[in-house]
Design a protein that fits this description.
- The chain is mainly α and about 200 residues long.
- The protein has three domains: about 70 residues, Helix Hairpins; about 45 residues; about 60 residues, no CATH class.
- Helix content is about 65%, strand content about 0%.
Length: about 200
């Protein structure tokens, strides 16, 4: 990456903001590769897409390292070190001898430690509002549930019905985003299959 950053005109021009769209694209391509693996057991695409996603991490770290001269910035070693520190701190049952009963207690400890690290005071602090709507609804409802708070009333309509479906999915232990993705894949004709449906309907 050091060689690319100095030797390639395109790579040299990139910034965190210009790379953001590629990070998003590679994330969705990785999700698609996961769906392909789940459906076929073929993981070659997943390995490739994870590599492309890792490239984005390395690229952003390389861009950030160029700010080291002004007292800010970071490099890939800082990124990796931060992951190690985070995992050790949030797994006291592995690294510090804490006794836990089950995975649910592990999750509660994780959320408590994370909230303390981030110094969050509001139940929804840190929830990215740019999440896809179903994932956002799932995240918000989960945060409210952990805090013992009920959702505020919402206006009747499709949005309220969708929110209720997400709540039902949570109660059933189902990821609503993944469930809808799976349903769409089932509804869509497989790639390469001739379209026998006739002219498309106006929508």
């Amino acid at each position: 990456m050091d060689r690319l950053r100095t030797g390639c005109p395109w790579d040299r021009e990139q910034t965190h903001r210009s790379l953001a769209t590629y990070l998003l694209e590679e994330t969705y391509e990785t999700l698609e590769a996961i769906d392909t693996w789940a459906a076929t057991g073929q993981d070659r695409d997943l390995a490739e897409e994870l590599g492309d996603l890792l490239l984005q991490v390395v690229f952003h770290a390389r861009v950030a390292s160029e700010r080291r001269g002004d007292g800010s910035g970071f490099d890939i070693d800082d990124v990796a070190g931060g992951i190690v520190d985070k995992l050790v701190h949030r797994h006291p049952h592995v690294f510090a001898g804490l006794e836990v009963a089950d995975a649910d207690e592990v999750d509660r400890n994780w959320q408590r430690l994370k909230a303390a690290e981030k110094q969050r005071s509001h139940v929804l602090d840190g929830v990215p509002l740019a999440l896809p709507a179903l994932s956002l609804a799932d995240k918000v409802l989960g945060r409210l549930a952990r805090a013992g708070q009920a959702p505020r009333p919402v206006d009747p309509g499709i949005g309220a019905e969708l929110l209720a479906l997400v709540a039902r999915a949570r109660e059933a232990g189902v990821d609503p985003e993944q469930a809808l993705r799976d349903a769409v894949r089932q509804a869509a004709p497989p790639p390469g299959e001739p379209d026998r449906s006739g002219p498309p309907a106006r929508v």
